[in-house]
Amino acid sequence: MKMLKVVLFLHTLLSPFFLAAAGNFYSNVDIEWGGERAKISNAGQLLQLSLDRASGSGFQSRQEYLYGKIDLQIKLVAGNSAGTVTAYYLSSMGPTHDEIDFEFLGNVTGEPYILHTNVYTQGKGNREQQFYLWFDPRADFHTYSILWNQQQILFYVDGTPIRVFRNAEGVGVPYPKSQPMRLYSSLWNADDWATRGGLVKIDWSHVPFVASYRNFAADACVWSVGRSTCSASKGRWWTQSLDSGGAQRLKWVRKNYMIYDYCHDAKRFPQGFPPECSLSD
User: Fold this and answer.
1) Which end of the chain, N or C, is surrounded by fewer C-beta atoms within 10 Å?
2) Known catalytic residue: 99?
3) pLDDT tens column, 47-92
4) Rounded Cα distance, 77 and 223, in Å
5) pLDDT 10s digits, 111-135
């Protein structure tokens, strides 16, 4: 029994995925800003961010990742959330950073949230796609996932793919492959642009605005001492792409819930669409 305890302890110490798999916010994240507006409770299983007139709040993962699958369940700000943004993203540091974004743009009571997505490579973004959701994200927790491997980045909502950003190095587009990224999430005041282009402002009579999180999981290659450490048997995400069923679900989302795609915005790109659009679905 003593030997078994030693083996289990060593496995816990050495496994690069143990903390992430545990889903405990005390172990996996640090409160980045906002002070008492960010709270962890329920033995580390629940994290809540709040926004008031003075400040928003945010947290970041303790680990950095270079490829992986990140899952996080979020319940968004209830009621009149106009002017607020709940951001959930992976990002590296510096002016030529890489970044993979989910941003949830609040709205007045009864009107839908907008899910705003973007991808930055080598400091260049402007690759926005926006969606409505097929459920009320304020009513309950839903799972939002980023799958990032060498072939593509996949965005998922409750296991349904909503966006693919393929590796387009073959047509001269940089791809996130060398900069480790940390997970960040924040709740903040963006009423200068978030709701109807900034026409609808935050109604501060509803403070505090609260977003809730649970079940953070990172099955990923962890960056440590200048290199990426992966499990000996990488998860399915390492080679995952869309099968025929996933491709059909993606088409369903794009047909019924997509409200903006930069690859279709001819007014924005009168001289021709960015080269990665040639690989777009």
Assistant:
1) N
2) yes
3) 999 999 999 999 999 999 999 999 999 999 999 999 999 999 999 9
4) 32
5) 999 999 999 999 999 999 999 999 9
Of 64, 103, 128, 169, the active-site residue reads 103
Block residue for tokens 């009107």: 111
Catalytic site residue from 32, 36, 99, 169: 99
Q: How far apart are CA 63 and CA 210, in angstroms?
A: 25
State yes or no: is 103 an active-site residue. Answer: yes
pLDDT at 20 over 50: no
* ∠ CA 160-223-234, rounded to 5°: 50
Share of the chain above pLDDT 70, in %: 90
Question: 48 Cβ partners below 8 Å, 6+ apart?
Answer: 38, 39, 41, 210, 211, 212, 213
pLDDT band of residue 18 (cuts 50, 70, 90) is very low
Which among 113, 112, 117, 148 is positioned nearest to 130, based on CA atoms? 117
pLDDT at 4 over 50: no
First to last CA, the chain: 55
Neighbours of 257 (CB within 10 A): 17
d(Cα 66, Cα 81) in Å, to the nearest integer? 34
Distance of CA 203 to the CA centre of its chain: 26
